[in-house]
Amino acid sequence: xxxxxxxxxxxxxxxxxxxxxxxxxxxxxxxxxxxxxxxxxxxxxxxxxxxxxxxxxxxxxxxxxxxxxxxxxxxxxxxxxxxxxxxxxxxxxxxxxxxxxxxxxxxxxxxxxxxxxxxxxxxxxxxxxxxxxxxxxxxxxxxxxxxxxxxxxxxxxxxxxxxxxxxxxxxxxxxxxxxxxxxxxxxxxxxxxxxxxxxxxxxxxxxxxxxxxxxxxxxxxxxxxxxxxxxxxxxxxxxxxxxxxxxxxxxxxxxxxxxxxxxxxxxxxxxxxxxxxxxxxxxxxxxxxxxxxxxxxxxxxxxxxxxxxxxxxxxxxxxxxxxxxxxxxxxxxxxxxxxxxxxxxxxxxxxxxxxxxxxxxxxxxxxxxxxxxxxxxxxx
Length: 380
Known about the structure:
Blueprint: H1 33-41, H2 46-72, H3 92-96, H4 98-103, H5 111-125, H6 136-144, H7 146-156, H8 172-198, H9 203-217, H10 221-231, H11 244-269, H12 273-281, H13 286-301, H14 303-316, H15 328-336, H16 345-374
């Protein structure tokens, strides 16, 4: 029989009719979709059924009052505490103090410079999550090189006809982003160099890197900031002084670089020995083999650890409050104690938490997409 022939079903042989199979039927609804997921994950055993019902009960106790407080019974319009007349959240406080939360004490007439800095930052970051965006690579290079310099000129002023603004006037979200961005951009390359130095075959280089990493990892960041702000000026020659913000930036960068070095060293240790031997067989020197073969693989393997360090750095910026710098959390705390506003502590902290969550969640999601893009079979 030829492969194209069909067999007539029993009882129809010789009638000239061909057998036509019925099209496949869709699977039962109980085996696919949300019902299958719920059955497999929420109601797969008696214990899971009990835990699911208890969780639903707790959600029912918490969510409806929370929604009522935050949205249904909340006050959104107005400009003073007297406009908060309901029992819900007083979001009027956030609207009235929003400029302070974003700019701090930055002069109102010069805030367009901060807005321009935010716009440039968006132009650098947003295209990175759009894979087919043209010039994405060049925008990333711009964000790591020229953007910090341009932002520094805009914020500090004193050149190109811009009025000078002291760093003591910076605050709110502006200061938080400055601390986090400079810390991230500077800590990664320094951490790479420290990780390579700790694995160096030269005893002096290795010893210096080990001492640096262990010393900075052995003290809390709050002590580093305190030393940078209070103790460091005591060891400087007369007439030499560093800006308080610059001292805080140096302390944050050095502290995070030590942690970043250990994350990257873990990736370097995970590279098979054969990769080093293959690079040597190709005749590549140390720096070319490290930059072209070893380091790209190591960084790809430790993307979760790198992003976790970045997220930790972003949240640790709140500690600058102890040296008199008011980041977004500091401006919220300063506004809460204002007697012109009543009991608005919850609303202020919710707003600050939301701001931190937006940036930290964004970094987390971007790292996951980057992992999926660079995945080349290392997963098990």
